[in-house]
Specification:
The protein contains seven helices and 17 strands. The chain has 263 residues and is of the alpha+beta class. It has three domains: 81 residues, Uridine Diphospho-n-acetylenolpyruvylglucosamine Reductase, domain 2, CATH 3.30.43.10; 105 residues, Uridine Diphospho-n-acetylenolpyruvylglucosamine Reductase, domain 3; 47 residues, Uridine Diphospho-n-acetylenolpyruvylglucosamine Reductase, domain 1. The strands form five sheets. A five-stranded antiparallel β-sheet has the order 5-6-12-10-11. The chain has a four-stranded mixed β-sheet with strand order 1-2-4-3. Strand 16 and strand 17 form a beta hairpin.
Amino acid sequence: MSNKLDFFTNLTDIEIKVDYPLAEYTHFRTGGPAEILIQPQTAESAADVVAICREQDIPLQVLGKGCNVLVADRGIPGVTLLLAGKLARYDVAGDQLFHQAGLRIAEACALAARNSLAGLEFACGIPGSIGGALRMNAGAYDGSFQNLVVRTQYIDRSGMLGWVERDEHDFSYRSSVFAGNDWIITQTVLQLEKGERRAIYQQMAENARKRRESQPLEYASGGSAFKRPAGYFAGKLITEAGLKALRTGSSGVSENHVGFIAN
Protein backbone atom coordinates (compact mmCIF):
# COMPACT_ATOMS: atom_id res chain seq x y z
CA MET A 1 0.00 0.00 0.00
CA SER A 2 2.65 2.52 1.05
CA ASN A 3 4.63 1.92 -2.14
CA LYS A 4 1.59 2.77 -4.27
CA LEU A 5 0.80 5.88 -2.23
CA ASP A 6 4.35 7.16 -2.65
CA PHE A 7 3.75 7.68 -6.37
CA PHE A 8 0.99 10.24 -5.70
CA THR A 9 2.19 12.19 -2.67
CA ASN A 10 3.87 14.91 -4.73
CA LEU A 11 0.80 15.65 -6.86
CA THR A 12 -1.12 18.86 -6.23
CA ASP A 13 -4.88 19.50 -6.47
CA ILE A 14 -5.85 16.02 -5.35
CA GLU A 15 -7.35 14.53 -2.19
CA ILE A 16 -6.33 11.01 -1.17
CA LYS A 17 -8.14 8.56 1.11
CA VAL A 18 -7.06 5.03 1.97
CA ASP A 19 -9.30 1.95 2.38
CA TYR A 20 -12.32 4.21 2.04
CA PRO A 21 -15.83 2.62 1.88
CA LEU A 22 -17.53 3.27 -1.46
CA ALA A 23 -21.13 2.57 -0.42
CA GLU A 24 -21.79 6.29 0.12
CA TYR A 25 -20.68 6.99 -3.45
CA THR A 26 -22.95 4.49 -5.21
CA HIS A 27 -26.68 4.65 -5.87
CA PHE A 28 -27.04 1.03 -4.75
CA ARG A 29 -25.62 2.15 -1.36
CA THR A 30 -23.44 -0.95 -1.28
CA GLY A 31 -19.81 -1.76 -1.91
CA GLY A 32 -16.51 -2.37 -0.19
CA PRO A 33 -13.54 -0.02 0.17
CA ALA A 34 -11.32 1.60 -2.41
CA GLU A 35 -7.71 0.70 -1.69
CA ILE A 36 -6.73 4.24 -2.72
CA LEU A 37 -9.44 6.82 -3.43
CA ILE A 38 -8.26 9.95 -5.26
CA GLN A 39 -10.41 13.03 -5.92
CA PRO A 40 -8.82 15.41 -8.45
CA GLN A 41 -9.75 19.08 -8.54
CA THR A 42 -8.55 19.74 -12.08
CA ALA A 43 -8.38 17.88 -15.37
CA GLU A 44 -4.60 18.16 -15.27
CA SER A 45 -4.30 16.51 -11.85
CA ALA A 46 -6.66 13.73 -12.98
CA ALA A 47 -4.45 13.20 -16.04
CA ASP A 48 -1.37 12.99 -13.80
CA VAL A 49 -3.03 10.22 -11.77
CA VAL A 50 -3.90 8.27 -14.93
CA ALA A 51 -0.35 8.64 -16.26
CA ILE A 52 1.19 7.36 -13.01
CA CYS A 53 -1.17 4.38 -12.89
CA ARG A 54 -0.23 3.52 -16.47
CA GLU A 55 3.52 3.90 -15.86
CA GLN A 56 3.51 1.94 -12.60
CA ASP A 57 0.99 -0.69 -13.70
CA ILE A 58 -1.43 0.23 -10.89
CA PRO A 59 -5.07 -0.87 -11.44
CA LEU A 60 -7.33 2.13 -12.12
CA GLN A 61 -11.10 2.48 -11.94
CA VAL A 62 -13.08 5.67 -12.56
CA LEU A 63 -16.15 6.58 -10.54
CA GLY A 64 -18.54 9.48 -11.10
CA LYS A 65 -21.84 9.69 -9.24
CA GLY A 66 -21.98 5.92 -8.87
CA CYS A 67 -24.96 5.15 -11.13
CA ASN A 68 -24.94 1.90 -13.12
CA VAL A 69 -22.16 0.75 -10.80
CA LEU A 70 -22.09 -2.27 -8.49
CA VAL A 71 -19.02 -2.39 -6.25
CA ALA A 72 -18.07 -5.78 -4.82
CA ASP A 73 -17.95 -6.19 -1.05
CA ARG A 74 -14.24 -6.94 -1.34
CA GLY A 75 -13.73 -3.43 -2.72
CA ILE A 76 -11.56 -2.11 -5.54
CA PRO A 77 -7.79 -2.70 -5.65
CA GLY A 78 -5.39 -0.02 -6.81
CA VAL A 79 -6.67 3.49 -7.47
CA THR A 80 -10.27 4.63 -7.73
CA LEU A 81 -10.41 8.03 -9.43
CA LEU A 82 -13.49 9.85 -8.11
CA LEU A 83 -14.59 12.68 -10.42
CA ALA A 84 -17.73 13.65 -8.48
CA GLY A 85 -17.70 16.60 -6.13
CA LYS A 86 -14.33 18.22 -6.72
CA LEU A 87 -14.41 18.31 -10.53
CA ALA A 88 -17.85 19.87 -10.85
CA ARG A 89 -17.48 23.50 -11.90
CA TYR A 90 -19.70 25.11 -14.52
CA ASP A 91 -20.23 28.33 -16.47
CA VAL A 92 -22.69 29.89 -18.93
CA ALA A 93 -21.73 31.80 -22.09
CA GLY A 94 -24.70 32.95 -24.15
CA ASP A 95 -26.64 29.82 -25.10
CA GLN A 96 -23.79 27.43 -24.30
CA LEU A 97 -23.15 25.63 -21.01
CA PHE A 98 -19.68 24.61 -19.82
CA HIS A 99 -19.70 21.65 -17.42
CA GLN A 100 -16.98 19.66 -15.73
CA ALA A 101 -17.55 15.93 -15.69
CA GLY A 102 -18.38 15.60 -12.00
CA LEU A 103 -21.35 17.97 -12.13
CA ARG A 104 -24.68 16.27 -11.38
CA ILE A 105 -27.08 16.12 -14.32
CA ALA A 106 -29.76 17.63 -12.06
CA GLU A 107 -27.55 20.67 -11.42
CA ALA A 108 -26.93 21.10 -15.15
CA CYS A 109 -30.70 21.03 -15.80
CA ALA A 110 -31.32 23.58 -13.04
CA LEU A 111 -28.59 25.82 -14.46
CA ALA A 112 -30.16 25.69 -17.92
CA ALA A 113 -33.62 26.50 -16.57
CA ARG A 114 -32.38 29.44 -14.47
CA ASN A 115 -30.78 30.91 -17.59
CA SER A 116 -33.86 30.32 -19.81
CA LEU A 117 -31.99 27.79 -21.95
CA ALA A 118 -34.03 24.99 -23.53
CA GLY A 119 -32.82 21.57 -24.63
CA LEU A 120 -32.01 19.74 -21.40
CA GLU A 121 -35.58 19.13 -20.28
CA PHE A 122 -35.39 15.45 -21.27
CA ALA A 123 -32.56 14.91 -18.77
CA CYS A 124 -34.45 16.16 -15.73
CA GLY A 125 -34.53 13.25 -13.32
CA ILE A 126 -31.74 11.21 -14.93
CA PRO A 127 -29.37 10.35 -12.07
CA GLY A 128 -25.63 10.64 -12.29
CA SER A 129 -23.01 13.04 -13.58
CA ILE A 130 -22.41 14.85 -16.84
CA GLY A 131 -19.37 12.67 -17.52
CA GLY A 132 -21.37 9.47 -17.16
CA ALA A 133 -24.20 10.90 -19.25
CA LEU A 134 -21.86 11.64 -22.16
CA ARG A 135 -20.00 8.33 -21.91
CA MET A 136 -23.23 6.36 -22.36
CA ASN A 137 -25.12 9.00 -24.37
CA ALA A 138 -27.89 9.11 -21.77
CA GLY A 139 -31.37 9.91 -23.01
CA ALA A 140 -35.06 9.93 -22.21
CA TYR A 141 -38.35 11.23 -23.61
CA ASP A 142 -37.04 11.38 -27.19
CA GLY A 143 -33.98 13.40 -26.21
CA SER A 144 -30.32 12.52 -25.71
CA PHE A 145 -27.01 14.24 -25.08
CA GLN A 146 -25.72 13.57 -28.58
CA ASN A 147 -27.97 16.36 -29.87
CA LEU A 148 -26.37 18.97 -27.60
CA VAL A 149 -22.63 18.30 -27.30
CA VAL A 150 -20.26 20.72 -29.04
CA ARG A 151 -16.85 19.65 -27.75
CA THR A 152 -15.48 17.52 -24.94
CA GLN A 153 -12.15 17.21 -23.18
CA TYR A 154 -10.93 13.73 -22.22
CA ILE A 155 -7.96 11.84 -20.80
CA ASP A 156 -6.70 8.94 -22.88
CA ARG A 157 -5.33 5.68 -21.51
CA SER A 158 -1.79 7.04 -21.28
CA GLY A 159 -2.83 10.13 -19.31
CA MET A 160 -2.80 12.64 -22.16
CA LEU A 161 -5.47 15.33 -22.41
CA GLY A 162 -7.31 15.79 -25.71
CA TRP A 163 -10.49 17.19 -27.26
CA VAL A 164 -13.12 15.84 -29.61
CA GLU A 165 -15.50 18.01 -31.62
CA ARG A 166 -19.09 17.43 -32.79
CA ASP A 167 -19.28 14.22 -34.89
CA GLU A 168 -15.99 12.97 -33.43
CA HIS A 169 -17.97 12.00 -30.31
CA ASP A 170 -19.24 9.01 -32.34
CA PHE A 171 -22.46 8.82 -30.36
CA SER A 172 -24.80 5.87 -30.76
CA TYR A 173 -27.39 4.15 -28.59
CA ARG A 174 -25.92 4.20 -25.06
CA SER A 175 -22.40 4.50 -26.39
CA SER A 176 -19.77 7.02 -27.49
CA VAL A 177 -16.14 7.36 -28.53
CA PHE A 178 -15.26 7.60 -24.82
CA ALA A 179 -16.75 4.20 -23.99
CA GLY A 180 -15.20 2.66 -27.10
CA ASN A 181 -11.69 3.85 -26.27
CA ASP A 182 -11.94 3.81 -22.47
CA TRP A 183 -11.29 7.56 -22.31
CA ILE A 184 -12.13 9.61 -19.21
CA ILE A 185 -14.31 12.68 -19.74
CA THR A 186 -13.23 15.80 -17.84
CA GLN A 187 -15.39 18.61 -19.26
CA THR A 188 -17.82 19.42 -22.05
CA VAL A 189 -19.68 22.23 -23.78
CA LEU A 190 -23.41 21.89 -24.52
CA GLN A 191 -25.26 23.96 -27.13
CA LEU A 192 -28.77 24.92 -26.01
CA GLU A 193 -31.23 27.54 -27.27
CA LYS A 194 -33.04 30.45 -25.71
CA GLY A 195 -36.45 29.53 -24.38
CA GLU A 196 -39.22 30.69 -22.08
CA ARG A 197 -38.29 29.96 -18.48
CA ARG A 198 -41.76 29.01 -17.30
CA ALA A 199 -42.20 26.52 -20.18
CA ILE A 200 -38.80 24.96 -19.44
CA TYR A 201 -39.65 24.47 -15.76
CA GLN A 202 -43.05 23.07 -16.64
CA GLN A 203 -41.59 20.47 -18.99
CA MET A 204 -38.97 19.48 -16.42
CA ALA A 205 -41.69 19.11 -13.77
CA GLU A 206 -43.75 16.94 -16.12
CA ASN A 207 -40.80 14.67 -16.85
CA ALA A 208 -40.08 14.39 -13.12
CA ARG A 209 -43.71 13.44 -12.48
CA LYS A 210 -43.53 10.66 -15.08
CA ARG A 211 -40.43 9.27 -13.43
CA ARG A 212 -41.98 9.29 -9.98
CA GLU A 213 -45.00 7.41 -11.24
CA SER A 214 -43.16 4.78 -13.29
CA GLN A 215 -39.88 4.17 -11.46
CA PRO A 216 -38.99 2.86 -7.95
CA LEU A 217 -37.29 6.06 -6.87
CA GLU A 218 -37.96 5.30 -3.19
CA TYR A 219 -35.35 2.51 -3.28
CA ALA A 220 -31.61 2.53 -3.81
CA SER A 221 -30.79 1.39 -7.33
CA GLY A 222 -28.42 1.95 -10.21
CA GLY A 223 -31.20 3.23 -12.46
CA SER A 224 -32.45 1.33 -15.48
CA ALA A 225 -30.10 -1.65 -15.69
CA PHE A 226 -30.62 -3.03 -19.20
CA LYS A 227 -30.01 -1.84 -22.73
CA ARG A 228 -32.88 -2.29 -25.16
CA PRO A 229 -32.22 -5.34 -27.41
CA ALA A 230 -32.64 -4.67 -31.12
CA GLY A 231 -36.27 -5.21 -32.03
CA TYR A 232 -37.37 -5.88 -28.45
CA PHE A 233 -38.07 -4.16 -25.14
CA ALA A 234 -36.05 -5.30 -22.13
CA GLY A 235 -39.00 -4.93 -19.77
CA LYS A 236 -41.21 -7.21 -21.88
CA LEU A 237 -38.55 -9.92 -22.02
CA ILE A 238 -37.91 -9.74 -18.27
CA THR A 239 -41.62 -9.98 -17.48
CA GLU A 240 -42.20 -12.88 -19.88
CA ALA A 241 -39.28 -14.72 -18.28
CA GLY A 242 -41.13 -14.55 -14.94
CA LEU A 243 -38.52 -12.36 -13.28
CA LYS A 244 -40.75 -9.46 -12.29
CA ALA A 245 -40.42 -8.81 -8.52
CA LEU A 246 -37.86 -11.63 -8.16
CA ARG A 247 -35.91 -11.03 -4.95
CA THR A 248 -32.76 -12.35 -3.31
CA GLY A 249 -32.30 -11.01 0.20
CA SER A 250 -32.91 -7.27 0.19
CA SER A 251 -32.35 -6.83 -3.55
CA GLY A 252 -34.45 -7.73 -6.55
CA VAL A 253 -36.18 -6.81 -9.78
CA SER A 254 -38.57 -3.92 -9.23
CA GLU A 255 -42.28 -4.65 -9.54
CA ASN A 256 -42.90 -1.04 -10.49
CA HIS A 257 -40.35 -0.95 -13.32
CA VAL A 258 -38.74 -4.27 -14.22
CA GLY A 259 -35.76 -2.54 -15.79
CA PHE A 260 -34.63 -1.59 -12.29
CA ILE A 261 -32.78 -3.82 -9.82
CA ALA A 262 -33.43 -2.21 -6.45
CA ASN A 263 -31.78 -2.58 -3.05
